[in-house]
Amino acid sequence: ARYRMEIGAYQDISKNAHWSVSSSKPGFGIQKIRDNDLQTFWQSDGPQPHFINIQFPKKTTVALIRLYVDFAKDDSYTPSDISFNYGCTYHDLTEVDHLVMEKPSGWIEAEMKIDEEHIRSNLFQVAIQANHLTGRDSHIRQIEVYGPLSSNRSYFDLPLDTGEDLSLSTIR
To answer: Is 159 left (phi over 0), alpha (psi -120 to 50) or beta?
Structure first.
């Protein structure tokens, strides 16, 4: 597991996605892991594995997925084995990272990279394979998805350095 990765080079793109889960207990749905409150949580309901699906309307470059978990508060509900997958559909998902953790607490981060390149896809999935103490249901307190900072500069934003550049910058 990787903790406290530098996220300054990334931007939060979570709001651009459609979120769904494989199951949830009443009152502990997907909205709980997107409410910016570390005291609330999504709770799965049913047999493992449990899935959090993150779908973008078009192919999107994802650099990092962060989960907030807290073993001290959640005990056997805390995930111990999580895989991170991507694909175009649910039928072609490929594992990109797999974390096996011992009593995690705080932000758990998985880089979405293959051969040093960030992954560009429209479907990402977090799959909880097992919990601590053989727990059945899982708690995830928060989740965030980050993409690289985009350089949305056009040629109109480029600096004008020379006198000739400045003379050409005016429309007559």
So the answer is: beta
Task: Please tell me the pTM assigned to this model.
Answer: 0.83
Q: Which residue has the tokens 């409410």?
A: 35
Nearest to 55 by CA among 9, 95, 91, 90: 90
Locus of tokens 């993150």: 54
Summarised one tens digit per residue, pLDDT across range 143-160 is 999 999 874 333 444 455
Residue 168 to residue 145: CA distance in whole angstroms: 42
Gap between the Cα atoms of 60 and 158, Å rounded: 26
Alpha-carbon distance 5 to 107, whole Å?
9
- Side chain identity at 116, as an amino acid letter? E
| Residue-level pLDDT at 163 | 56
Name the residue among 97, 105, 107, 102 with its Cα closest to residue 131: 102
Q: What does the chain come to in residues?
A: 172
Compute the Cα dihedral for 18, 94, 45, 3 and give only its sign: negative
Which tokens hold the place of 100? Answer: 């096996």
